[in-house]
Amino acid sequence: MAIAKAERLMNLALCLLGTRRPLSKRELRGSIEAYLEAGSDDSFNRMFERDKDDLRELGLVIETVENLDGEVGYLARRDSNRLPPITLDAEEAAALGLAAKVWQQARLAGAASGALQKLRAAGLPEDVDPYGSHGALEPHIPVHEAAFEPLMLACRDRRPVVFDYRKANAAQPGTRHVEPWALECWRGHWYLAGWDRDRGAERVFRLSRITGKVRARAGKYTAEVPDVVTVRETVAAWAGEITDRSALIRLRSGAGYPLRAKAVSVRELGDGWDELEIPYGHGLDAWLVEFGPDVVVVEPAELRADVVDRLRAVAKG
Q1: Which of 166, 215, 211, 208 is nearest to 183 (CA)?
Q2: Inter-helix orientation angle 2-18/41-57, to 10°
Q3: 0.70 exceeded by the pTM?
Q4: Under 8 Å between Cβ of 277 and 265
Q5: For residues 168 and 186, what is the distance between their CA atoms, to the nearest angstrom?
Q6: CA of 136: how far to CAs of 130, 133, 142, in Å?
Q7: Cβ-count burial of 79 within 10 angstroms (0-12 exposed, 13-18 middle, 19+ buried)?
Q8: Per the CB 3.0–4.6 Å rule, which of 16, 50, 212, 255 could disulfide with 294?
């Protein structure tokens, strides 16, 4: 669906840029195959108006001209849509080359390569090789999840999606209706940030936990897309890596070395126990449960209650 729309927009842009006189809706409909396949005049008119607005949002200057007979025509003058010369120094070209290499395992590899070729034709310095070696710096972002490409397209086209998502502590996946905002890779995993319609709030989803296919849905977004989407900060906070308070626990001597590595302070209590002050963030209760009888939560009270509830749930099976 997204590819068909992109092709239609490209054909319309070429028609408007290639004409020396304004073209009427009737002439444009006869020149573009997708418009010929429109079921009715109303369907064509709605499609054309959306496409014209999309091209203008992309920066194409489209003029509306009325002839002597009162018929409205459209054209995009080349002098109004010509970009200034592109000049890149060696560092800028190298940065673009590295960016293109990032996507060498994804479908964007062809698009990235084509973009660099166009920059070369537009004036990229001949002595700069954007594909050349950059020493020890070789970027690589793995993209193994099948959900990546449909979500990338959905983010680009501002298209709502539906997918099945399995939470870390859930036995079965649940259906999520999401308005996708942005994708970001953090510590080797891809995450999607967007608006969860069912929960009426911003959510972040790990792509590896999406099961089945991502299905696109028609319609507009219901929530405003923020100017800045902080995927990494959100994920770090949910992982307990962004904290603004501490917890006090007792840990059996010789146990819980991962906890000791994060400890702000450690004090020996005797009788085989130590007292640790550790950062308290989201998910700490689930982590402490993994250490079983080697950990006792002293404070805060809500953390102690959460750990006790989890231990009781484990005991019940």
Answers
A1: 208
A2: 80
A3: no
A4: yes
A5: 17
A6: 15, 8, 18
A7: exposed
A8: 255
In the numeric block, the tokens 């259906």 are attached to 175
Amino acid at site 121:
A
